[in-house]
Amino acid sequence: MSQPDVQTLVAEIRKRLESAGVADPLIDARLLIGGVIGFSLTDFVLNGTRPVTDDEAAQIETMVTRREKGEPVHRILGHREFYGLDLLLSPGTLEPRPDTEVLVDALLPQLRRIIAHKGHARILDMGIGTGAICLALLHECPQASGVGSDIAADAMNTARKNAERHGLQDRFETIESNWFAHISGRFDIIVSNPPYIRSEVIEKLDRDVRDFDPIAALDGGKDGLLPYRAIAEKAADFLNDSGVIGLEIGYDQKADVTAIFAAQGYVCVEAIKDYGGNDRALIFCK
């Protein structure tokens, strides 16, 4: 039996993923195949007649079966790009989403302002996950250093690996902490993409989120606002006078989160929408 070529395999897998209800079957087919054979998207156009070996086909088949069962494509691949950084994923981390990049965009001018004034800056990223937000900021600003906190040892381990992966380990450390419990010192930027989904909504989420993202990184309590209260109540003890707080929020939480921080003496200096036009991030200062 002759070996299939790449373009034939793409067509077959696309049909299977489409039948399984996958939203972007062609993109996912190319990502899974490319992850095994080392193809870029351009290679699929230029080298579609390349034969796929039996060993490659077996690896691809295993991955496609997982995707048919709902596992997100980047979890299968084990990594995902965020703000130009290729980040490793693990069971204890959220998969970084492109919409979170708008929070990095909003914080960079603040970070550069602080560095221009002081010569350096310290960042605290609470609920570090893969390290996406903090590491993106450190990568863009060599004069910054960062601390990433989390309650999940797996997440902190993954964040450290990602720091090493991009040569940022000398400016990054992790601390196991439930919000500010084990944090010391002061910071110029405090940032978090906290759990903000209401507990009752978790079971209604899409299966790729509900079944594969860590629940602890999703569940924000009964009203989805518990983490914001925890941050707002204690942040003043850890934030430098000219510092800012940057937060990702749910699409319908702008007014509630702004009110929580206003009650603690903070002003919202910027509200940012994501690529879909939904409220996504808020920047606060005293």
Topology at a glance:
Blueprint: H1 6-19, H2 25-37, H3 41-46, H4 54-68, H5 73-77, E1 79-82, E2 85-88, H6 101-118, E3 121-126, H7 132-140, E4 144-150, H8 153-165, E5 172-176, E6 187-192, H9 207-210, H10 226-234, E7 239-248, H11 254-262, E8 267-273, E9 279-285
Parallel strand pairs: 3-4, 3-6, 4-5, 6-7
Antiparallel strand pairs: 1-2, 7-9, 8-9
Your description of this structure?
β3 (121-126), α7 (132-140) and β4 form a beta-alpha-beta unit. This protein has two domains: 6-77, Ubiquitin-associated (UBA) domain (Helicase, Ruva Protein, domain 3, Orthogonal Bundle), CATH 1.10.8.10; 80-285, Rossmann fold, CATH 3.40.50.150. The strands form two sheets. Strands 5-4-3-6-7-9-8 form a seven-stranded mixed β-sheet, sandwiched between helices. Strands 1-2 form a two-stranded antiparallel sheet. The radius of gyration is 21 Å and the shape is elongated. By secondary structure, it is α/β, with parallel strands linked by helices. It contains eleven helices and nine strands. α1 (6-19) crosses α2 and α2 packs antiparallel against α4. The protein has helices at residues 6-19, 25-37, 41-46, 54-68, 73-77, 101-118, 132-140, 153-165, 207-210, 226-234, 254-262; strands spanning 79-82, 85-88, 121-126, 144-150, 172-176, 187-192, 239-248, 267-273, 279-285. The mean pLDDT is 94.
